[in-house]
Amino acid sequence: MEKMSKADLEKEEILNPEKAEKRRRRKKKARIMAVVTVICMILVVCCTGFIVVRAMGKNSIMSKATSPSPSLSTDLNVMDKVEQWQDGWVGYNGKVYEYNDDIMTFLVMGIDKKSTSPQTGSGISNSQADAIYLVVMNPHTKKVDLIAVNRDTIADVDVYSQPGAYANTIKTQIALQYTYGDGKAKSAQLMEKAVSKLFYQLPIHGYVAISMDAIPTINDTIGGVEVQCLQDLTEVDPLLKQGETLKLEGQSAFWYVKYKDMNASHGSSDRLERQTQYIQSFVGQAKSAFKADVAMPLTLFKKLSPYMVTDIKADEVTYLVSTAAAYKFSGEVHNLAGESKTEEGNEAFYVDDNALYQLVIDLFYNEVPQ
């Protein structure tokens, strides 16, 4: 269409006002269509970008697995009964199982600074992993499970000299593995390796190590956590009376989660019981807080940054946040079965291997129909 001059437009306005009005309408419509087109293009680019980042996040998470799959022993009698046995299958209790390699598993640690180095060696950091949990996300069932690992669990711990040179591997409390790093990423990586090995080389896709000092911040940001006090902790906080139901706030939350009776032979087990109870209540309160304020997760993340070390990257967070809404917490925290002993004045927890094997099968494997 030939473009009209200003003079021709003015002439048309006088001689043929109806035609001039139609022309203005067509021009306005064209501008609106142009704007809509631009907006649509922006939305497509943004949505495509989000999908790409989300996909990149998932791929990045899965690529970080510490191993391809657990290394479980298999029942040869079961294997002999299967005509076409496949690599990676496990025979157990007369059935065949296959590892669910879509599962994402993350190691979450609560770190506490100690005034003295561990008795097992010189160490490098003066911090230990006093709270150890595995967060298991199963995309098939859309369920999140938590596994609590007793910090006194006797496991293989790699010992390093002050310069960071590997010395040897010893059997000791798994919490001490954190001391043989730098108190940051290296320590977390050593813990990731030790926990993976404890669980038969279980693939772990990322870690988060948070200082115990962050407990009041985490607790109060979501509005406090209600519990029924399991043990008498009035020695450190007069509010923490056994059997008392209260909403934990500030330092009360800190002591409830962190305190350990050093004079009790079951001090670590008592603390783990309280931590488990606290987490179960925390999840419910956090869900309510996040629903009331969609920006709450970001707020909490920013507040935790000074206290936290993690290898979970931005694109991975994007993926996890975008999928988390579809998952439901099972409500159960799986505590490892085993036996606590006192050895040379220190607590030692020995995991029941049969129970651990069963737990790994239950949470990380699918039965193969025969």
How would you describe what is shown here?
The termini are far apart. The protein is extended and about 105 Å long. It has ten helices and 15 strands. It folds into three domains: 7-61; 101-206 and 332-370, Nucleotidyltransferase, domain 5, CATH 3.30.420.590; 209-310, 3-Layer(aba) Sandwich (Aminopeptidase). The protein has 370 residues and is of the alpha+beta class.
Helix and strand topology:
Layout: H1 6-15, H2 17-63, H3 76-80, E1 89-92, E2 95-99, E3 104-113, E4 127-138, E5 143-149, E6 154-160, E7 166-173, H4 185-198, E8 207-211, H5 215-221, E9 225-228, E10 245-248, H6 251-258, H7 267-292, H8 296-304, E11 308-310, H9 314-324, E12 328-335, E13 338-343, E14 346-351, H10 353-364, E15 365-367
Parallel strand pairs: 3-8, 5-12
Antiparallel strand pairs: 1-2, 2-15, 3-4, 4-5, 6-7, 8-11, 9-10, 13-14
Average of the residue pLDDT scores: 82
Q: What kind of oligomer do you see?
A: single chain
Compute the CA-based radius of gyration.
29 Å
Helicity, as a percent range: 40-55%
Distance between the termini: 73 Å
CATH class of the largest domain reads Alpha Beta
Query: What's the number of structural domains?
Result: 3
Q: Beta fraction of the residues? A: 15-25%
Structural class: alpha+beta
What's the number of helices? 10
Strand order of the largest sheet: 11-8-3-4-5-12
**Strand segment tally:** 15
Query: What CATH architecture of the largest domain do you see?
Result: 2-Layer Sandwich
- Spans of at least 5 consecutive residues whose pLDDT stays below 50 are 34-54, 115-123
**What gross morphology would you assign?**
extended
Write the element-wise H/E pattern from the N-terminal end onward.
Answer: HHHEEEEEEEHEHEEHHHEHEEEHE
Give the biggest beta sheet: 6 strands, mixed
Would you give the CATH topology of the largest domain?
Answer: Nucleotidyltransferase, domain 5
